[in-house]
Predict the structure of Amino acid permease.
Amino acid sequence: MEELNSKKKYLSWPVLTLMAFCTVIGLDDIMYNFQNQGMPVVTSWIIMCLFYVIPYSLMVGQLGSVFNNEGGGLSSWVRGTNGEFLGYFTAWTYWAASIPYAVDSANEIIVDIGWALTGSEKFQSQISNAKFALLTFAMFIIFIIIEHYFSHSMEILSTIGGGLMLIMTLMFVLLAFLGLAKSGGHMATQPFTWHTLVPNFNMHYWTTIAMLIFALNGCELVAPYVTKMKQPKSDFPKAMVALAVMTIFLTVFGSFALGIYFDSYHIPNDLKMNGAYYVFDMVGQQYGLGKTLLYVWAWTSVFYNAALLAVLLDAMTRMLISDTGDKYMPRFLQKKDQNGLPINGYILTVALSAFIMLLGIFLPDMNDIFNWLLNLNGIISPGVTCWIFYSFMQIRKNPQKFPADYVFLKNDRLGYWAGFFLLIVTAVATILGIAPQDIKQFSGYWWYELIINIIAVVVLIGLGAILPSIRRREERYGLAFSRGQWVTMLAVVCGSIVFDLYFAEQNQLLNGQVLSLGQVHLGLNIILIMVENLIAILICWLVGKRKPTAN
């Protein structure tokens, strides 16, 4: 038996650190918040890293140590502290909140490939919103196939993507500061004084805090892999501490380096989508390397976002179905293939990802869709992170019931209030983050984004109420739906998607020809699609409510 255990493959803590690094922070995350706040984001990062990232990571470390034999991550933590139903609901909400994050990662892969093949942003101007949505959908299918046939693809992609991202980021910061010295201290951000780093604490600033939290959360996604470590009680906290150190360096020095090349007072509108490419192009030109660094970054970003998408697809689906109450989770979602992958969970992930993409197809262009998805992540992802601090408060409230080899803050009362503090900060930031960003306030598209923000949250979280009823159908009839019901509902959903994409394409063409006419058709098309979607939902409900017959 000892010989067999010695041959078992374990995840080392450096590999887990790189996997977590892929889900937590990257140069793009710094770019997003630099566009939101400018150079004052340097101060914001310092505050957030000291008072949020470090305690947050160490709290996750203690939770992972307490529940080191559980496979569901956050859902297991809540289930272990507050019962089976809240464990299921946490699994669903966390999984649902990860959907926009996965869509955003798939979007980034398309952007990365466009830059890698053309060396410019021309690809983005040649693609319609509908084609962008279809390519994003294709990314999900491709990665499901890869994970199905290559069982270690996620670890390989995480090692390559996370390692390359760390190297490229370190190189960027180093070259930026060397270039600053070479130019005699010249910066694009002028005038640059200490006041440049002081945030303006107005309403816009507070509505962007949620995006900072979104950029910094995610390390709990690797919690399901704690059982794959040789010494999880010591190695998992070690990986979290290493992650916190890497995050502090990247955010603070990376943001300052961006201010060397971009004027903080006049930031390009597409910085979130293309900023990393612009800056590597400028660094390459500064050092006489042409577009070499741009292409190297493009392929680094391809691997990094591929690793992120792979981790998200696998980890968040495992979190949904692993160690979740059998009373609430349908059997067909728990089904796994020969490699242990939850294939039906992947399919549900792709379906809801398509829904998210369809919500944004009426936005003006690809850049607006990209920015909206980021802001949507800044709403629901921090909101679900509240479960982490809630669970941490419960284990500190009952330390005898939840012993751990690793403890963050020895004093239980102090630990409890630390968790409560982060819970309140995250909850308030989530509420403020619902206001649309990167668009003219109170314009037509501002209201449209506000509406689809609310719809996305309601649908993604509310859909979890349907799964227990499907599980009850399985208990009553032996199966949830017959093959005929599945085929009919699938055909209706696919037909609805094709209908939505067609009208989105027509609306974008009209916007490109006559703006006022496009605005009129925008409202008409939205109403038409809402009616069509309601009809599709009604048909699916009527088909699904019937008693299933044996396949």
Summary: DSSP finds 22 helices and no strands in the chain. The two ends are 44 Å apart (CA to CA). Residues 84-118 form the longest helix (35 residues). Confidence is low (pLDDT under 50) at residues 1-6, 512-520.
